[in-house]
Amino acid sequence: GSKDVAFPRLNSIGFWIQPCGWLLLAKTAFLRPQFWRYYDKPAFFSPLLDKSKVRLFSELDETGFNFSKSLKLYDIEEFFMFWKHRKQIKLKDYTDFSFVPNKLTFWTSILSYPESFWFAADKAVKARRKKVYFTKCSNRTLTMSGWAFITPFSSNTKFTGVGSQDIAVIGVIFTGISTTISFTNLLITRRTLSMPGLRNRRVLLPFITIALFLTMRMLALITPVLGAAMIMLLLDRHWQTTFFEFVYGGDTILFQHLFWFFGHPEV
Questions:
Q1: Residue ranges of the Cytochrome oxidase subunit I profile domain (predicted)?
Q2: Counting C-beta atoms within 10 Å of the first and last residue's C-beta, which end of the chain has fewer, N or C?
Q3: Number of domains comprising the chain
Q4: Taking a C-beta distance cutoff of 8 angstroms, is the pair 242, 203 a contact?
Q5: Widest CA span in the chain
Q6: Are residue 30 and residue 158 in the same domain, yes or no?
């Protein structure tokens, strides 16, 4: 019988926090970029494997008379940046195979000719289908532990991606905060602002209303448990706690109990 909820501002806060949680969950797809293209991008991982960073900053800064001396450290010729005359080629039958225009008559010859467009296009097609091994091993943001957050996969950064998995956990925490604010507001509204007949149970309520009240009371019990489990996951991942690490005395099944303590009543 009330015209509004007991705390209208809390109602607005609880309503707008929930889309933030869903947006964070959607963001996990964009933190897994390899699923959105047909090729692997090793550009991010190649500098991580480069062991010559000090050499790049210290040796080539001699742009004066010692520039050629710096280039020699890399086994680069002095004519590397300049044109030079063509050497006399003394290979047997070189001109018979390299300077014959008739060889470009057939399609197979054109396809294998290095200066043609189709040679580069053929290489691009082959490179597109080829997977680079170390990018697949290094890009751990592709890995998540599923909607049930199975431990120890979700509690260890060695098994799941730093970024996508963390944002999924934070999204669940945001959704739990929104749910807690909303059901607390509705329960207080029902307790304090309902009409006298409803408060004294002299009015019969529809079954859907009774079901909503029971659901909110169950959420009051189970939502903080799920939020605590998600916070424990983050602590295990980044702050060296061992709630779910069996090797260090934790219990892997503990998270399943906490998660399904929320999951079964919620379902």
A1: 1-267
A2: C
A3: 2
A4: no
A5: 109
A6: yes
Length of the chain: 267
Two tokens at 30?
A: 């964009």
Amino acid letter for position 151: T
Per-residue pLDDT of the chain (267 residues; tens, 9 = 90+): 567 888 889 889 999 999 999 898 888 877 765 555 545 555 554 555 555 555 555 544 544 445 455 555 555 554 444 445 556 667 665 555 555 666 666 666 666 666 666 666 665 555 544 444 444 444 555 678 888 898 888 888 888 877 788 889 999 999 999 999 999 998 888 888 877 666 556 667 778 888 888 888 898 899 999 999 999 999 998 888 989 988 888 898 999 999 999 888 777
Confirm whether 3 is domain-assigned: no
Considering the domain architecture, whether residues 169 and 260 belong to the same structural domain is answered as yes
178: Cβ contacts below 8 Å, ≥ 6 apart: 14, 15, 17, 18, 21
The Cα 23–Cα 168 span in angstroms is 10
